[in-house]
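Structure ticket #2291
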Amino acid sequence: MAKVRQDAWSHEDDLLLAETVLRHVREGSTQLKAFEEVGDKLNRTSAACGFRWNAEVRKRYTEAMELAKRQRKERKRALARQKKQTLTNHSLSTNSEAVGSVINESPVTLDTIIQYLKSFKQTYEMNERTNATIEQMVAENKSLQDEVKELTNKLTKTEKQLTTMKEDYQTFIQIMERARKMTVLDDQGTFKSPAFRMDKNGNLEQLTERLN
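Resolution: structure written out below.
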């Protein structure tokens, strides 16, 4: 049946929506899945739940949302450490079983035990180097992200400075243009009109100013 519920949201509805969204965020899920879950429980559409969250409920749970995001990060780190430990334990267990199998199938001699203990040590050291490399890559990635963020901030600051310089330049050009126009007007105001006289034949001729 289509969801057509249009009544007002109650305090209990808002509380259910907030708790569900925060739980999904903590567990590494998405808000969309939280909206769908609440919609199924309240017979509302996921879009209606999302609109209610963004318009009304979210601003009342700002600190709780930040805490949920931090808990999500910690959960991811814990899962990563657990997976890393599981892989290490599995590798060690596999090597131990291999050593035991060979020892059981072959005559037990001191040289055989030393040989496989060396192999076991090499595998363990290889795993440790791999883990160290992964941690180094994670650290380098974080450093690069911080550097990109710093460069982005510098670029934004430079763009703002460039915009200010452009505005100052335009203002300077306008001032110079006004000064030029004023100079032209002053020159026109001091221009002397030419003088004429009539010669003996009745023609007008322009008088040239004599230089002293």
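Closing remark: Residues 11 and 17 are 10 Å apart (CA to CA).
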